[in-house]
Amino acid sequence: MGYSVPGADFTESDKLQVNVGATLGAIGANVLTSFAKAWQANAVKTEKLKQLQGDFRDQTIIANNATAQQTIQAGLDSGKFKKGTSVFEQWSEQVIKRGEDATQARIDMRFGDLDAAGEKEKLAVINSFTNYNKTSLQNMGRYTTDVLDYNNPENKQFITGDMSNGQYMNNIVTMTAANGVDAEKQFGKGATSERNLIVDGDTNIISSSVSIPQNNDFIKNMKTGSSAFNDVIATGLENGNIIDDGNGNYVFKSKINMSVYGTEGGPDFLVNHTEAVDQNALLNRANFLNKDNEILDTSYLGNNKEGFESYKTTANTGNNNLQTTELEVLDIGTLLGNDSFKTDMAAEVNTILRPGRSARAIASDMAHNYITADIQSFHEAFPGLKKYKSFEEFYGSTDADLKKSFTNNVIREHMFANIFKDQKIPGNKDGVSFITRELNATKDKKLIEYLNNNNAKNSLGEAYKAGDMVYGREIIKSEKITKPASISYNEKVYNNLKKGVDESILFAALTTTPAGSKIMYRPDAEIPGTYVISDGIAVGTKPLEQSEGALLNLFKP
């Protein structure tokens, strides 16, 4: 509800420059007091007084009509009630009727022969008129304020209701239709809307019904534009928040008790919200980010430890490319233990759960700020939630510890999921990227072991396991794998010479060197060894191996 001070907008008229509600109350009290004194002072009603009945009637009619018209005008002047709308006209009729009844009650008290019970009954009628004027302005004012605010595109309040079961959608349709604009203009061809004021004693109940053909363009566009629309419709039909009338229409119905609108336990379609935590400021104070809100190198696991090795994997990516992936994991465990971080998180949780806030406001905050629309999704992780059908029910419970624990964990998960949202890759961007991924029991077995061996902690402050999210930055480097070319005969000779293979084996036959000369091992020479051969004759008196490195140099690549 956007109505911060109950009754203010409707009991205060800019044109009248008076507090209408207070004035109405004063008028009623003064009249009642004068009537009571007059009735008590006159035990016997004389003919003279009866003769004054006509004059009195005229005056009271004027007075009560003036009060009724003042109340109606106050509603118009506030800008919250629109003349010509069905609810306003029905409410105006009710104010005038009650004014007429109060007139007659005053006449009966003044001139009728009433016993104590009869007098009490007439006083109740007069009081009802006064109270109805005041409370209906205030209570209906809260609702109409929300209607006007919701239909203002610049309004930043949150619409209430469970998003997963059709309640939220029903509230949206109801609030959209309540501004009195033709239904077809709002919801497409064939759409209709109806609003009626039901008065039960001093209680105003607005009954709203909006019917939208299932095959019109509005519904078709919703089905194609939103992946969740069909699921919400199905769930809404199942639990009665949406009705299929059997004639091809979706019907959105609501009964809104104006007497308690905007109060704890009563309906409230629009609520002020608490801003989501400023995570950059929070992480900056925890020395996780620098002054430019960039993640510090020391915020990664092991980057403040000498000799620490990050997690590396290699893979052949095809086309003779060898890829090395280095993963630097955010050191969430150290962050969770930071005193500044713990203090700020506790303050944020306490702000959301602060006393005096309605359960629907808290549930709306969490749904819109921290994406907690579907309570079913949390039943396994937080077994204590299984007994609650909605977050509004949960936050309205007395389960204080679970509410704090759940809220804290959700905020943390939301923060880490968005940790890289505004981050930029520092320096050389090639091959560097931020990653967020779910750990797979099979594919990430070695990574999980690595994290646990290095005492890394997940977002809950626990050892990593399959299904947890890991956050970090990857550095990927690729290099071409060069396959060695086939070795030539000369290279083989050179390698064998280096290995010390006997030359008598290597050059047992006539061999051509890279330079084109011929050499051969001659065991029959005066000095056995390898000689240069020319025209079949050994050249020289000493073998080549006696010159240091001679053979190697001949075959050196």
Per-chain topology:
Elements lengths: L7 H4 L8 H22 L5 H5 L1 H25 L8 H26 L4 H35 L7 E2 L7 H11 L5 H5 L4 E9 L2 E11 L3 H9 L3 H11 L3 E2 L4 E9 L12 E2 L7 H7 L25 E6 L4 E9 L2 H5 L2 H14 L6 H12 L20 H5 L4 H18 L14 E7 L6 H9 L15 E12 L8 H11 L3 H4 L4 E2 L5 E5 L6 E6 L2 E3 L10 H6 L2
Antiparallel strand pairs: 1-6, 2-3, 3-5, 4-5, 7-8, 8-10, 9-10, 11-12, 12-13, 13-14
Helix pairs in contact: 2-6, 4-5, 4-6, 5-6, 13-16
What are the key terms here?
557 residues, alpha+beta, four-stranded antiparallel beta sheet, 20 helices
Describe this structure in words.
- With 557 residues, this protein is an alpha+beta fold.
- The protein folds into five domains: 8-150, no CATH class; 158-271, no CATH class; 279-333 and 421-480, no CATH class; 339-409, no CATH class; 489-555, no CATH class.
- Helix content is 44%, strand content 15%.
- It contains 20 helices and 14 strands.
- The chain has helices at 8-11, 20-41, 47-51, 53-77, 86-111, 116-150, 167-177, 183-187, 217-225, 229-239, 279-285, 332-336, 339-352, 359-370, 391-395, 400-417, 445-453, 489-499, 503-506, 550-555, and strands at 158-159, 192-200, 203-213, 243-244, 249-257, 270-271, 311-316, 321-329, 432-438, 469-480, 511-512, 518-522, 529-534, 537-539.
- Strands 2-3-5-4 form a four-stranded antiparallel beta sheet.
- β12 (518-522) and β13 (529-534) form a beta hairpin.
- α13 (339-352) crosses α16 (400-417).
- The longest helix has 35 residues, at 116-150.
- It is elongated and about 165 Å long.
- The two termini are 88 Å apart.
